[in-house]
Amino acid sequence: MMYLLDTNTLIHFFKGRGRVAERLLATPPNQVGISAIVLHELQTGIAKSTQPVKRRRQLESLVSAAVLFPFGRPEAAASALIRANLERAGTPIGPLDTLIAGTALANRAILITHNTQEFSRVSNLTLDDWY
After folding, report:
1. I want to staple 37 with a disulfide (CB 3.0 to 4.6 A). Which of 51, 95, 98, 99 is the partner?
2. Packing angle, helices 7-14 and 52-65, rounded to 10
């Protein structure tokens, strides 16, 4: 079983919110994934942070232990279908969330997010909230 961590889950982890750290530390590192899209979002946050050195160190420590999911052809194809289906239904989600959901589907991963309301619109996407 593979878990793909959404950006908000990692922010909760870094800030010690909810039960994210407890759940994450109880999960084998080879079952924890971070998508290139989430990495981008976190690096953007660090670039804007008032504590970039501390935040970069936290991120590098986590990324070095987790599986990094690239964004390639399978992820692009899955994301395109998600976007088309949600737009057709009139229920789109954010563009980066579409890419994160596509990454989870393409890799048959469970998406760990506190944003279940938005992601629940994506067909066949398995969600869990560790918050």
Report:
1. 99
2. 120
The domain containing residue 39 runs over which residues?
3-128
Q: d(Cα 130, Cα 25) in Å, to the nearest integer? A: 11
Pick from 48, 113, 43, 111: which is nearest to 79 by CA? 111
Name the pTM for this structure. Answer: 0.95
Beta bridge mates, 5: 112
How many Å apart are CA 104 and CA 19, to the nearest integer?
22
Are the C-beta atoms of residues 10 and 42 closer than 8 Å to each other? Answer: yes
Question: 38-58: per-residue pLDDT in tens?
Answer: 999 999 999 999 989 988 998
